[in-house]
Amino acid sequence: MKRVFSGVQPTGNLHIGNYLGALKQFVELQEQHQCIYCVVDMHSITLPQEPQELREHILDIAALYMAVGVDPKKSIIFIQSEVSGHAELGWILNCASYMGELSRMTQFKDKSKGKENGSIPSGIFTYPVLMAADILLYDADIVPVGNDQKQHIELTRDLAIRINNRFQKQTFVVPEGRFLKEGARIMALDDPTSKMSKSAENDFSRISLLDSDTKIKKAIMKATTDSDAVVRYDIEKKPGVSNLLSIYSTFSGISIEDLEKQYEGCGYGNFKKDLVEVTIDAIRPIRERFEEIRNSLELTKVLDDGRERAEAIAEKTLARVKTDFGLGR
Ligand code: ATP
Ligand code: LTN
Question: Per-residue pLDDT tens for 84-94?
Fold first, then answer.
């Protein structure tokens, strides 16, 4: 059975971009694979977090994993900082990665734009190396993520191949990314040229998985479109409408082509109204399940059990890696 690993940062509540770009695959994959899903809290402190809030968000994300359908009987759910192997392997991989390749990461460039070197935390720079450690620690074959993580997966593969070549053995399994085509990148509702994000200031730029029906409706009705009133997919000329079509299509399972036909000559009013309904129907059960799980004993048990199972795998890999590198006695 192939092994799957993925992680989400506890930097805020998950939105439909996270869901359609990543979590939906998490659920589909667990039927045929051994899946390990992590709350990557150590990644989230690359930028300062309010400790009280961070702790809440960690549990929120774990509960959301379960609310969207990750089944702890099939998959491992755990918290990154509770398994020390991530930090250990992170250091080892840091020693095998180059300043040049890390400087080329677009996420690093984005996050450090306009800042002086003196004020960029080095954790932002080495962030992809910790991500590589997450993946390689579990000998993962497949990593389901949004398109924005492609470069980080490529780096992970490069590091694994580089080290395997150096030692002339399979120290690491070389993983593959799994990216969704349609709707893999959901854009912000108020600005369809930037991606929907947990951290954007405008709350109406996103639809969170925990939003009320009223908030969802308001966000969609306010969403930026254009003035020609034609429901047609055209990323260049009609980014707003195209984004809404992507969301509609992934939630409803109706192809974008069929949606274009369905709304021919209708303008945006009806299209948006129906999209509100489709979105609310998809999100309501997630929100309700979340409420049940979030403060339950079940969640504590799942995370304790997840930590144990993750640790058992991590220990073995780390022992193998240390031997190959000649570390210890
Ligand atoms: P954000 O910018 O919203 O804070 P993020 O990029 O920092 O999110 P995570 O929260 O760790 O990253 O994202 C979890 C998963 O969701 C990742 O696989 C990521 O690729 C995916 N993802 C994030 N934003 C989007 C989006 N707008 N569309 C599709 N997938 C996304
Ligand atoms: N960098 C990712 C989150 C992340 C991740 C991982 C995803 C950290 N470690 C390991 C997959 C596998 C992000 O920001 N979306």
Answer: 999 999 999 99
